[in-house]
Write a structure and sequence with these properties.
CATH class of the largest domain: Alpha Beta
Strand content: 5-15%
Shape: globular
Number of helices: 15
Structural class: alpha/beta
Number of domains: 2
Strand order of the largest sheet: 1-2-10-7-8-9
Order of helices and strands: HHEHEHEHEHEHEHHEHEHHEHHEH
CATH architecture of the largest domain: 3-Layer(aba) Sandwich
Length: about 350
């Protein structure tokens, strides 16, 4: 979606924006809606690395954009805010989408807030805890015996044959998601943005935000966009390396939130990476889980596996990265609480002497 930037420049200034609360709604003029539905999404913290910068002997200044503080625990709330608002403007009464979990929870929450019926189609490997979250918001959940692409087919059929308004990684969601980039442009001036990639919407939307701010001369420079996928499901990375178009793949990963073999916004993400002079890479599930562990144990940030893919990508490429780096941490660890988490609680009797023994050995 292209705005009339000459009109936009007259309607808004960076000084005007900075007088507003720091959240997603701060950038209202940049969205294709007006009376926006909001659960106070956005305004997520940018956290400077406390330990990993030195632990990993990085050449860069490392920051984490922690999207887990959004209302439903992931960056998806930014897109849902705009997308559900648009559905209301179109006078829709029911919506549906396909989701591995995070988008479904987000759409269900915003639908609940607007009294719309909501139907979510999830693939066979969707995490039970994410399905529980969707159900909690009152949505109808349909667990498809198939992968994410097949869940999309079900949602699209509901739209084509039954008139259920289709939500997902489409036009309006991209416009809402770009507030990640607007916030980063205000919070810091990154040289690199490492971004997990599934459908590619987040990366392409974030790049669009930097372009829009640069067009309006709100910022002087734009970062290089680095897209990170899971090794066993990495069609965008393969296309980047081959210099060809994206070909769908059939693969799986523990980082289910980025398990998209036929990415809807893949070509947009690929173009964004190339235009920004960035690159795409993939990381193994083992590397993702190690990065997740480091984020929690060394930075105090609990991420779901997909949210840790950005750090895993930085670690893999650390010798060629200098300057200021932001890793997007896209979802909360409680979305997949047991995946890759090591250790278990130790039993202890209700006995003070037993407690004293523990600390005497510490």
């Amino acid at each position: 979606m292209i705005f009339d930037y000459s009109k936009l420049k007259k309607a808004v200034s960076l000084e005007k924006i900075k007088k507003r609360p720091f959240n997603h709604a701060r950038y209202l003029e940049f969205y294709p809606v007006r009376n926006m539905v909001s659960l106070q999404e956005g305004g997520t913290p940018l956290i400077r690395s406390k330990n990993l910068e030195s632990d990993l002997n990085l050449k860069c200044e490392l920051h984490f954009k922690y999207e887990a503080t959004n209302p439903t625990g992931s960056f998806k709330d930014r897109g849902s805010s705009v997308e559900v608002t648009k559905a209301l403007e179109f006078k829709q009464k029911q919506v549906s989408c396909a989701s591995t979990g995070n988008m479904g929870a987000s759409v269900a929450a915003y639908s609940a807030a607007t009294n719309m019926k909501c139907y979510i189609f999830t693939p066979r490997d969707a995490k039970p805890v994410k399905i529980e979250q969707i159900l909690a918001y009152g949505a109808g959940v349909y667990h498809v015996d198939g992968n994410y692409a097949q869940a999309i087919e079900m949602a699209e059929h509901a739209f084509k044959e039954h008139g259920v308004y289709l939500l997902g990684d489409y036009l309006y969601r991209r416009e809402g998601t770009k507030s990640v980039g607007f916030e980063l442009a205000e919070q810091t001036s990154p040289d690199y943005v490492f971004c997990p990639m599934g459908n590619g919407t987040l990366l392409s939307a974030t790049w669009k935000a930097f372009n829009e701010f640069r067009t309006l001369k709100f910022i002087k420079k734009k970062p290089k966009m680095i897209g990170i996928q899971a090794e066993k499901c990495s069609p965008i990375t393969k296309a980047f390396r081959s210099g060809r178009e994206i070909k769908p793949v059939c693969g799986s990963t523990l980082a289910v939130a980025i398990e998209c073999g036929d990415p809807l916004d893949g070509e947009k993400a690929l173009k964004s990476i190339r235009d920004s002079k960035g690159f795409a890479d993939h990381v193994s599930d083992k590397e993702i889980l190690k990065a997740r562990e480091l984020l929690a144990k060394r930075e105090g940030l609990f991420a779901e596996p997909a949210g840790a893919a950005s750090l895993a990508g930085l670690i893999k490429n650390k010798n060629k990265i200098e300057g200021r780096v932001v890793c997007l941490v896209t979802g909360h660890g409680l979305k997949t609480p047991r995946t890759g988490v090591t250790g278990k609680p130790k039993d202890i009797k209700h006995d003070i002497k037993a407690l004293d023994k523990i600390f005497s050995k510490a």
